[in-house]
């Protein structure tokens, strides 16, 4: 029996968020596109089923003279995930989530992000913990953007967050997964979905996140700021699928020296 058959393979569990099972493990944002038409086409090409948007920057019909996101992204087709981008305090984040609930007729699924400062957009974890606790107490289903600290990630899960979303690198940086060891620790300790949020720059970054065992990846800039966003959206869809299959297949062990693909044992000469 070969080494690969002796190792146990990861369990192929579906992605379930807030009681709903999703086929796509790619979540996408709606900002930084040239126009609403491009937004809609890119999201369709990505195959994503969950679409996130910044409540403070997005027109959902409250401004009738401006294009509405709902004209390009139908709530009947996609799960809408309002987020608190641009919030720097727990108070602002909580207020923004409550506004989203009003605009979306009682919608309780939100992505919480509380930022520390404008230069890095790194999460302010002190304020994030405060906001998460209040939102959960108020009946929100919280998916939370957080640092790559495994202990804080576990704390957020224990509080009742339904998904943990550690950054791979600073928001919009395109640097790729800079902290694979910490991401792996978070995945191993989690009993809720773990989704890399922020830092992805190209398809190989998304594949790596999935090979680390993440349940999904959320991205925006990597698609929207590509020279061809529609083609990049398709590439990201395929990258997520490929990385997930590679994770489930179980990679070969790394070795210090070579091992021939066609061994000479048992040959006739």
From TrEMBL:
Localization terms from the record: Cytoplasm
Main location (coarse class): cytoplasm
Binding positions (1-deoxy-D-xylulose 5-phosphate): 172, 198-199, 220-221
Catalytic residues (UniProt): 111 (schiff-base intermediate with dxp)
Keywords: Cytoplasm, Schiff base, Thiamine biosynthesis, Transferase
Catalytic activities: [ThiS sulfur-carrier protein]-C-terminal-Gly-aminoethanethioate + 2-iminoacetate + 1-deoxy-D-xylulose 5-phosphate = [ThiS sulfur-carrier protein]-C-terminal Gly-Gly + 2-[(2R,5Z)-2-carboxy-4-methylthiazol-5(2H)-ylidene]ethyl phosphate + 2 H2O + H(+)
Xref: InterPro entries: Aldolase_TIM, Thiazole_synthase_ThiG, ThiG
Known EC number: 2.8.1.10
Domain of life: Bacteria
Gene3D superfamilies: Aldolase class I
Pfam families from the UniProt entry: ThiG
Pathway(s) of this molecule: Cofactor biosynthesis; thiamine diphosphate biosynthesis
Coiled coil segments of this chain: none
Thiazole synthase ThiG domain ranges (all copies): 16-263
Class of the enzyme per the UniProt entry, highest EC level: transferase
HAMAP family, A to Z: ThiG (MF_00443)
Family note: Belongs to the ThiG family.
Subunit and partners: Homotetramer. Forms heterodimers with either ThiH or ThiS.
Job description of the protein: Catalyzes the rearrangement of 1-deoxy-D-xylulose 5-phosphate (DXP) to produce the thiazole phosphate moiety of thiamine. Sulfur is provided by the thiocarboxylate moiety of the carrier protein ThiS. In vitro, sulfur can be provided by H(2)S.
Protein name, UniProt field: Thiazole synthase
Gene (UniProt): thiG
